[in-house]
Design goal:
Bound molecules: adenosine-5'-triphosphate, magnesium ion
CATH architecture: 3-Layer(aba) Sandwich
Oligomer: single chain
Largest sheet: 8 strands, mixed
Number of domains: 1
Distance between the termini: 15 Å
CATH class: Alpha Beta
Number of helices: 11
Strand content: 15-25%
CATH topology: Rossmann fold
Structural class: alpha/beta
């Protein structure tokens, strides 16, 4: 079982869109996938199955060890794609994790799934908290969407330094440009030579595209909604790269 996360301390940069699209593409390539929406706002539910998605369960039952994580999973939202929806109680994750300091609680929760799950995709909230620290420590790779602006690059440097300081392995952080709008001069300049600004950027640019915005309205991944769009091609390229990263395929 491999674990990847989509994370950035900045909000609204395309983490959830990428997490959902990559989880869907993984499931389509016969990879048994679990997408876990760790953000109490629960946006992944909207992208995946519309607003009527089955509700998440209270976190307390999971954290006091009375219910295994399997009980929180909605099986086969799509074939090969299981899903743990967020619940507003996920806001309390940090308090619970503090009480259990020293253990990677997330790792312990996921361990029993390792036989039947090939890939876990964690969609993180835009905060730097104990939860996201555990994610950074645990994940095999963390994909970091960056809108091509100076502020975004600045927050990337901070995240990279934080990961280095904590010895999480800064190499597992994989930055890529997201919501890139070629009509904007700064966007064009920054995406022209990402290696000038980023260490080992992915060769992936997800464009600003109305098709991605429509995911929330239609409740479908891009591969279903607009497979011929440039953004869908970007996510397919990204999934190919993730497979190479994780399984050296
Ligand atoms: N490539 C894109 N092109 C156009 N709109 C996009 C793109 N990616 C995301 N969006 C839109 O931007 C908004 C934020 O996207 P998303 O929810 O994926 O970001 P996020 O980083 O997960 O946000 P949060 O930090 O709130 O969790 C959504 O309305 C989404 O539809
Ligand atoms: Mg999100």
């Amino acid at each position: 079982m491999r674990i990847i996360a989509f994370y950035s301390p900045k909000g609204g940069v395309g983490k959830t869109a990428a997490a959902v699209n990559i989880a869907y593409l993984a499931s389509q390539s016969q990879c048994k996938t679990l997408l876990w929406d760790l953000d109490p706002q629960g946006a992944a539910s909207f992208y995946l199955a519309g607003a009527e998605i089955v509700k998440g369960k209270k976190l307390s039952k999971l954290l006091d060890g009375k219910s295994p994580v399997a009980k929180f999973i909605h099986d086969d939202v799509y074939p090969n794609l299981d899903f743990i929806p967020a619940h507003s109680s996920f806001r309390n994750f940090d308090i619970k994790l503090d009480q259990d300091a020293g253990n990677n609680v997330l790792r312990q929760m996921l361990a029993p799934l390792s036989e039947e799950t090939s890939l876990v995709v964690l969609d993180c909230p835009p905060t730097l908290s104990r939860l996201t620290e555990q994610v950074l420590a645990l994940a095999d790779a963390v994909y970091v969407p960056l809108v091509p602006t100076w502020l975004s690059l600045n927050s990337w440097t901070q995240l990279r330094d934080f990961a280095k300081g904590k010895k999480f392995g800064a190499k597992k952080l994989k930055p890529f440009f997201s919501m890139a709008d070629r009509r904007k001069r700064l966007h064009r300049e920054l995406i022209a030579s990402p290696e000038d600004y980023l260490e080992q950027p992915l060769d992936i640019i997800i464009p600003y595209a109305s098709a991605v915005e429509r995911m929330g309205e239609e409740g479908q991944p891009l591969e279903v909604l607009a497979p011929n769009s440039v953004a869908a091609a970007g996510f397919r390229k990204m999934w190919a790269g993730i497979q190479r990263d994780l399984w050296k395929r």
